[in-house]
Amino acid sequence: PQVSHSSTLPSLSDKTQFPSFLRTRASDFVSSLAVIQLVLSLGWSWVIILAQDDEFGQQAGALAARELEKAGICIEFHLTVPSQHSLEKITCVVQKMQTSTATGVLVFLNNSNFRLILQSLLGFHPLGQVWVSEGLLHTALALATPGISQILQGAFGLLCHNSQVQGFPEFFSSLHPSQIPEDVFLVRFWEATFGCKWPHENSTETEDVRLCTGAESLRGHEFPFQDVSEVDIAYTAVYSVAHALQDLVSCEHGSGVCTDLQHLHPWQLLHPLRKVHFQTHDGTDIMFDANGDLVTKFDVLQGQWNCRGGSPCCTEKPRPGHWIGGTSEPGFLSPLVSQCGCGSNQGSVPSSVCSTSCEPGFSQIPRQGVPHYCFECHPCPEGQFADLLYMKSCLQCPEKQYPSQTRDHCIPRTEIFLTFDEPLGLALTLVSLALASLACLVFGVFLWFRHTPVVRANNRALSYVLLVSLTLCALSPLLFLGRPSPTTCLLRQTTFAVVFTVAVSCVLAKTLTVDLAFRATRPGQRVRMCLGNSASSSVVLVSSLMQIILCGVWLGTSPPFPHRDTASEPGHLVLQCQEGSGMAFSCMLGYLGLLAIGTFSVAFLARDLPDAFNEAKFLTFSMLLFCSVWTAFLPLYHSARGKATVAVEVFSILASTAGLLGGIFLPKCYLILLKPEQNAPTKLQIARQTQCAAVAPTNMCTPMFLAQRP
Question: Whose CA is closest to 110, among 86, 131, 82?
Fold first, then answer.
């Protein structure tokens, strides 16, 4: 068996080629893996790999690239530094590092190239990078380079945890060649350390050679040999062999056969050496993994500069974390908490990201053509929020809440609807009741003066039905006010549609009656059969029945229902009635519109008939108002939002009701109440004869014929 305390070649871990090789120093593979684990623990997501162009750099760089990509960390640059110094290639590497945005750099270089890259970066604009390497000497070189604080804001290095040999400094300082004259090494070591020649029995003193006096002392003296200063590294290897021998002799190696040291073969030591497990005096566990590599513990050294950017402020070992692992087991890196730094940076871990975190109220939008860790922060859209950092998308607030002005949390919405007690609702209510009262008053006047010529000449029955329907039209807006409920949502539009259809159909029937009555010039003609009350009632019933059927189909297929509107008014939850089927609602309005246009057309054609016979001009004017109101209603209704939609429809209902009531009945009330002399039968008879003579033959204007006119 061979136990090495200095070899780091990863290939020596292959037990197929080197079955009897063990080591107490971490291989390059383990050290590289420790560097990768350190980067993962730092939480970096955007790094640079700086590797040397040799076997070590290529293997370590490839391992780092593979493991980092597996962990979702993006690599901005994977730069290769030539083993043989090339000014052109070094310049290219430095230029790329100048243009990089990553602040974390994984370094897999030898000492000379490490120093060369650092010195080449001096004189450029500040980078603020943090370098991570596997060697403690790299950190020391970085801290000792003058002016490097402009390039680096810190450095991390790994220190292999070694147990110190107790009593070795005292033992070593007490050594003297005179005590062990047969130790040739000690004599040569003494001569090399103090620059003298140890006198021998047959040696002669010359002028060129200074003889050692023996009064020299090793205590506190710096040794010229590195192996002496790093003797602690060999401690673990020596004690591993010692414990293996102890287990072999004491039959604790597992074979159950005790071995005599007098007949010991070297191969017998291999098995207990692989199974050795002991603790050093400082409590460190010593054991080998399946590949013969010591399960290594690394101390993590962090170096930073003071607030003035001068000398290092943290050169001692702060022990912010440690890593334990071998080649056959995954390592573990304890959480890092920096003990270095200045001001608010003290206690913080350096970061290396392509894009800084998005604050609450913003979401990450990926940038085109760059890795997914590079993004832009965009404010959350209307109705959404983001209450955490690093949110890739904003969240939708619950229905009853809306985002704050900063869009970092949700606030409860206020429920609103058109109420009776608010100014607008109260005004509409008063207008509705006033119009209904006026319609009832007109209805009472017509009932009281029902036998007068003005009331009789304009089809009393149709007038009564029209006044009742207008009263209901004036009261229907009350269904649109108040908190929407399933019942009011069902009754709102259907009641409005039916009562307005009855009103418009009554106007159509009155217009047709006037027009046909004037054109029935000869007694006994067939057109006179259409002048009776049954014909007028049929027009009203058929027209109203069509609308009732449409409303019935609407209610049976997709009826209106209460709905909470969150999009109309930010910060409010608008309670309103959803039409259900938009097609059915459009058909209802379309039918009412066609009926109104037809009525207006008939009234417009009959507007020039003699006033004594008809009310065509008043009907034309009232229908003109009606059509104008509802023509303006359509664009206003579709552009309004929230409870303004209800207000627009209520205003249109009241305006059209007032137009029909005022245009048709107020002139008649004026004659009945203020001009009673024009409401007398004789006055009306004279007026009819005068106007009839102007437009009809003489035999048609006799009193008998006029008496037969409706």
Answer: 82
H-assigned helices in 323-364: none
Model confidence over 333-364: pLDDT tens digits?
444 444 444 444 455 677 888 878 888 989 88
Span 78-92, average pLDDT: 85
CA distance 74 to 376: 16
How far is Cα 81 from Cα 306, in angstroms, rounded to an integer?
30
Contact (Cβ atoms closer than 8 angstroms) between residue 433 and residue 425: no
Residues 397, 386: Cα–Cα separation, whole Å:
10
Pick from 591, 584, 593: nearest CA to 631: 593
pLDDT higher than threshold 60 for residue 212? yes
Q: Which two tokens stand for residue 297?
A: 């513990």
Contact 40, 138 (CB under 8 A): no
- Measuring CA to CA, which residue among 403, 405, 376 is closest to residue 392? 376
User: Do the beta carbons of residue 422 and residue 428 sit within 8 Å?
Assistant: no
pLDDT tens for residues 628-670?
888 888 888 888 888 888 999 999 999 999 988 888 888 888 8
**CB-based contacts of 185: which residues, under 8 Å, 6+ apart?**
none
Domain boundaries, the chain: 2-165+294-324, 362-412, 423-520+532-679
d(CA 515, CA 477): 33
Q: Is 584 helix (H, G, I), strand (E, B) or coil?
A: helix
Q: Does domain 2-165+294-324 have CATH number 3.40.50.2300?
A: yes
**423-520+532-679 and 2-165+294-324 share a CATH fold:** no
Pair type for strands 332-333 and 322-325: antiparallel
* 405 CB burial (10 A radius; 0-12, 13-18, 19+): exposed
Under 8 Å CB-to-CB from 634, ≥6 apart: which residues? none
Beta strands 395-396; 384-385: pairing state: antiparallel
Six-digit token string for 74: 């993006």
> 116 CB contacts (<8 Å, ≥6 apart)?
85, 90
Cβ distance 385 to 405 under 8 Å? Answer: no
Given a contact cutoff of 8 angstroms between Cβ atoms, the answer to whether 291 and 18 are in contact is no
Cβ neighbours, 10 Å, residue 372: 13
Q: Are 607 and 618 in contact (CB under 8 A)?
A: no
CB 506 within 8 A of CB 500: no
The amino acid at 144: A
Can you read off the two tokens belonging to residue 366? 């990926």
Q: What is the dihedral of CA 619, 621, 627, 633, to 10 degrees?
A: -130
Residue labelled with tokens 């002991």: 278
End-to-end CA distance of the chain: 134
Look up residue 607 and give its DSSP letter. T
Decide if 243 contacts 275 (C-beta within 8 A): no
Minimum mean pLDDT among 82-96, 233-247, 393-407, 678-692: which range?
A: 678-692
- Could you tell me if 198 and 179 are in contact, meaning their C-beta atoms sit under 8 angstroms apart? no
pLDDT tens track for 301-312: 887 665 454 444
Task: Using alpha carbons, list the distances in angstroms from residue 63 to 17, 31, 131.
Answer: 22, 11, 18
> Strand 285-287 vs strand 277-279: parallel, antiparallel, or unpaired?
antiparallel
**Rounded alpha-carbon distances, angstroms, from residue 570 to 399, 417, 465, 606:** 12, 14, 45, 52
Tell the CATH topology of 423-520+532-679.
Rhopdopsin 7-helix transmembrane proteins (1.20.1070)
| C-alpha separations of 575 from 417, 486, 535, 564 in Å | 5, 12, 45, 5
Sign of the alpha-carbon torsion through 89, 93, 94, 96:
positive
The answer on pLDDT for 513 being more than 80 is no
pLDDT in the model for residue 607: 67
